[in-house]
Design a protein that fits this description.
This protein has helices at about 1-35, 45-50, 55-70, 75-85, 85-105, 110-140, 145-175, 175-195, 210-235, 250-275, 290-320, 325-350, 355-375, 385-400, 405-410, 415-455, 460-470, 480-490, 495-530. By secondary structure, the protein is mostly helical.
């Protein structure tokens, strides 16, 4: 009798473990898919542009619009999960996302591509990502959440690293359309696996605040759009040829307007709470010290992560001329240590101080970036990124293993959907600012170094140097030696002068990369000192 009870208990435990594994795989797959779209097409922009009859700028607009839609409706997506139920919101989001991927795979022009990729996939992601955060909370007890959140978050980071490799392989040997066709298949598998999930019931009587939805979407949209345009227009001073509003770059005004609208949104939420009406988020939640500390660290994590994945692939693919596949392979060491840290730290050190782990993560990121800066030189090869990528992976994995659990466990479980919406909004802002600021600093440093070099280079005629000072003052594109040689030959520049310009451009490229990475190292130190609000004990 006792033996039978033990066997039954053992079978039940095995079934629960298996079910938890399926749920974790499902949620991690969803996170991987949501993040993949932001990186997989970076190596295929020119090919996609030719196929749909548009320009590189048109495809970049589609990518920008995807980020814009996703960030603008993330808070609303979290609230809809509360109204519909987290599992239902997740499933509806997957269906919308799958339809968007299917339309994109068949797109014959830019308008169809933007409808499928930028709009439908963006709306689907805004429903899915907050639901993922809430579903981890409803399917795992608190002491299991650090590992669960770590693996889910690491799936997103791995998607950023693997995206260029996947996109490069499929674009080179098949077609970029197979990327989106594959996403439809993955969505179908995810929908089958969702039957194992434990749902949280919808909140009775909850309604959507339409005015709050409009204000949050407008405010976030203005901020994110301003940040994404900063590379072209400049942050404060308008770049040469860029629009100017009252002597300043439109970016400053867009971010300021977005901040004012978001402040109005918070006032509106407080006003509705005072009347007893439903709100998208409770502003008092943002005064939670632990939640605020987790959100700040999330912001810095995604800032650094996006900045690294902007600068390092540029060095590999443009400065060294590696193919998309070879570039992706060089980024894979990050994925291995990221998974090791995200899954291993909660398992081996279940009672570790979250604050210490987060601080160690930022230190590892700082060390990896500093090593990269020190090794970066005109004669450096692809091997110099190995140790920086290993350390960066350890750092991102350490952060992923703690931050999701810290933010969600800082509030009651019924608010996990709201936290998911705010958390994903913060991470999108961090990634947008990280990419934009890294790019702006890189181009600014590259331009200054190149123009100074050609001005003092005796091999470059004075009239050509003066012309460069005028025409390239707004920013020099980050291009390879081969592309620059082709452009100079087409312009009829003498061979010895062209060679000097190419050499100067190569040196300026390294200066730009080094400056951009140095900025990221400084941000990692700031993040380290801002992590004091992370708790010292695991949530329980």
């Amino acid at each position: 009798m006792i033996q039978d009870q033990k066997k039954e208990a053992s079978r039940r435990a095995e079934k629960e473990t298996s079910g938890a594994g399926v749920v974790l795989l499902t949620l991690a797959s969803g996170q991987f898919l949501m993040t993949l779209d932001s990186s997989v097409m970076n190596v295929s922009i020119v090919t996609v542009a030719k196929d749909v009859g548009t320009t590189v700028t048109g495809i970049q607009t589609a990518v920008t619009f995807y980020t814009l839609v996703m960030a603008s409706f993330m808070i609303t997506g979290g609230r809809l999960g509360q109204i519909l139920g987290r599992k239902r919101a997740f499933v509806i989001g997957c269906v919308i996302y799958g339809c968007g991927s299917f339309i994109t795979a068949l797109a014959g022009n830019l308008a169809t591509l933007m409808f499928g990729w930028s709009f439908l996939e963006g709306v689907g992601a805004a429903l899915i990502m907050p639901a993922i955060v809430a579903l981890v909370a409803s399917n795992f007890v608190r002491d299991q959440r650090p590992r669960a959140y770590g693996l889910v978050a690491s799936a997103g980071a791995i998607a950023v690293a693997a995206g260029p490799l996947i996109g490069g392989l499929l674009t080179t040997y098949l077609s970029w359309r197979w990327v989106f066709a594959g996403e439809v298949l993955v969505v179908f598998v995810i929908l089958i696996l969702t039957r194992q999930m434990v749902d949280t019931p919808p909140t009775a009587g909850t309604r959507l605040d339409l005015v709050g939805t409009a204000l949050s979407a407008l405010g976030l949209g203005l901020v994110v759009y301003g940040i994404l345009r900063s590379g072209s227009w400049g942050f404060v001073q308008p770049k040469t040829g860029a629009p100017s509003w009252l002597g300043l770059s439109p970016v400053s005004w867009l971010i300021l307007a977005g901040g004012i609208v978001l402040r109005l949104f918070l006032w509106w939420q407080t006003h509705r709470l005072a009347r007893g009406d439903a709100v998208l988020i409770d502003p008092a939640m943002l005064r939670n010290r632990i939640l605020r500390g987790g959100l700040i660290s999330f912001f810095f994590q995604y800032f650094l992560q996006a900045g690294l994945f902007f600068a390092v692939p540029l060095f590999l693919s443009v400065a060294l001329g590696l193919s998309a596949v070879a570039t992706g392979i060089r980024l894979l060491p990050l994925s291995s240590t990221l998974l090791l840290a995200a899954a291993g730290i909660p398992r081996v050190f279940p009672d570790a101080s979250p604050r210490r782990v987060v601080q160690a993560g930022f230190l590892a990121l700082f060390a990896g970036i500093v090593i990269m800066v020190a090794a970066l030189d005109a004669g450096a090869g692809a091997e110099i990124v190995t140790w920086p990528m290993l350390l960066a992976g350890l750092g991102i994995g350490a952060l992923a293993s703690q931050l999701g659990s810290v933010t969600v466990s800082s509030v009651p479980d019924e608010h996990s959907g709201e936290v998911g919406g705010v958390q994903n909004t913060v991470t999108n802002l961090g990634a947008s600012i990280g990419t934009a600021l890294s790019g702006a600093v890189l181009i600014s440093s590259l331009t200054a170094s190149f123009l100074s070099g050609v001005q003092h280079n005796p091999a470059v005629p004075a009239d050509l140097s003066s012309k460069a000072q005028v025409e390239l003052a707004g920013g020099i594109p980050f291009i390879s030696d081969e592309d620059l040689k082709t452009a100079l030959d087409g312009a009829g520049v003498p061979p010895h002068t062209a060679e000097a310009i190419v050499e100067q451009n190569a040196a300026a490229r390294i200066d730009g990369l080094r400056t951009s990475l140095s900025l990221l190292a400084a941000i990692a130190l700031i993040a380290l000192f801002c992590s004091h609000q992370i708790p010292t004990r695991q949530p329980s």
